[in-house]
Amino acid sequence: MNSQLFSPVRVGELDLVNRIVIAPMCQYSAEDGCATDWHLLHLGQLALSGAGLLILEATAVEAAGRITPQDLGLWSDANEAALRRILDAVSRHSPMPIGVQLSHAGRKASSRRPWDGGALLLAQDGGWPCVAPSAVAHGAGEPPPQALDKAGLARICDAFVAAARRAERLGVQLIELHAAHGYLLHQFLSPLSNRRADDYGGPLENRMRFVLEVFDAVRASVPSRVAVGLRLSATDWVDGGWDIDSSVVLCRELDRRGCAYVHVSSGGLSQQQVITVGPGYQVGFAERIKREVAMPVIAVGMITQAAQAEAIVAEGRADLVALARAMLYDPRWPWHAAAELGAEVFAPPQYWRCQPSPHKTLFGTTRVGQR
Predict the structure, then answer these.
(1) Are 256 and 219 in contact (CB under 8 A)?
(2) Beta strands of the chain (E only): which ranges?
(3) pLDDT by residue (tens digit) across 283-329?
(4) Concatenated DSSP letters of 100-143
(5) 317 in helix, strand or coil?
(6) CA distances from 71 to 25, 160, 162, 328, 364 (A)
(7) First CA to last CA across the chain, in angstroms?
(8) Is 183 a catalytic residue?
(9) pLDDT per residue over 41-55, tens digit each?
(10) What is the pLDDT of residue 9?
């Protein structure tokens, strides 16, 4: 069969060999924002998976923008040097393009790691003050964040630009702005978290303003060969919150401004969200947005089976599919999908001997025999 999942696709000026994306997955394993040996192990195995693209976890553009004290960051020379060590090692052994997701957690910053409970860290426990569009706390009983003034907005926009320039120096080929899962850019979009009365609040046009300013600034700060896209929560899953119709309006505007792609997720802003989770439960949002824009659309959300992923792409519901937990469970997921779908996939020569006998052309047909 001619697999659509394993067909090439162009994202901005970046050519991908297939349509499987490794989605950003927070590891909460950095030290003062610096990547560690854990990242070398984690990213190294994923870079040998045969996917078309690997996007690094949410990477804070300033220290106060970390979700937890252990978040990866790209705000300092030390952060840049630590990440360079990892990326240089990975890139020596894998041709897979690498992207980075730049993020600011806003009112969801200063939290414990998920396996430590995930609660807000107060100052006496090593936490720090949070900022947001408005002084509206994320969780019941939490102190409200500080509402950003225009100087604060300018500082954060500049931090996104500085981090983007660091990423480009590192050889990163794609930058994803994190406007999903209840973090700062998403907080500006949603009327549940944005209660401002100035040019950045109120009507949809105003609530989109900061996200578009950050996108424009980052896009202008790096060469055109670096694809700049955005991850979006298509809905808050709360009545009166951000919704799919608003997402379509934002995506049309991003498309007009030269956005390379949109990565469609959902939720994360409100503890009142009600989500019915099931296989491919977010794909419908990607499908709706794809009908409205020219840029490629990435679908994500409980996509776990090769046939399922193939159908999403072949039926035109999305241009690419992203996997997160499924890749953690099976870091060779693209190999196994290629075997099932009759496609070829990249593997390093050290692993060529592992092909099961029914799939001797899985890694291509030009192979040197083994003694």
Answers:
(1) no
(2) 9-11, 14-16, 20-22, 53-60, 98-103, 131-132, 146-147, 174-179, 227-233, 262-265, 297-300, 320-323
(3) 999 999 999 999 999 999 999 999 999 999 999 999 999 999 999 99
(4) EEEE--GGG-SB--GGGT-PBPPGGGT----EESSS--SSTTSP
(5) coil
(6) 11, 16, 18, 18, 38
(7) 32
(8) yes
(9) 999 999 999 999 999
(10) 98
- Which domains, and CATH codes, for the chain? 9-359 (3.20.20.70)
Cβ-in-10-Å burial (0-12, 13-18, 19+) of 135 comes to middle
Q: Phi and psi at residue 297, in whole multiples of 5°? A: -120, 130
- Assigned token pair, 285: 């949002």
DSSP 87-98: HHHHHHH----E
| Residues 302-319: b if buried by 16+ CB within 10 A, e if exposed | bbeebebbbbbbeeebbb
pLDDT digits 0-9 by tens, 159-218: 999 999 999 999 999 999 999 999 999 999 999 999 999 999 999 999 999 999 999 999
**Mean pLDDT of the region 126-146:** 95
Residue of 28, 183, 200, 261 marked catalytic? 183
Cα(13)–Cα(17) distance, integer angstroms: 13
At 49-86, the pLDDT tens digits run 999 999 999 999 999 999 999 999 999 999 999 999 99
| Whether pLDDT at 365 is above 70 | no
Coil, helix or strand for 281? Answer: coil
pLDDT for position 231: 98
**Residue 116, pLDDT above cutoff 60:** yes
Task: Residue 248: name the closest of 213, 218, 204, 193 by CA.
Answer: 204
Contact 352, 334 (CB under 8 A): no
- Count of Cβ atoms closer than 10 Å to residue 336 Cβ: 16
Q: What DSSP letter does each residue of 212-246 carry, written as one string?
A: HHHHHHHHHHS-TTSEEEEEEES--SSTTS--HHH
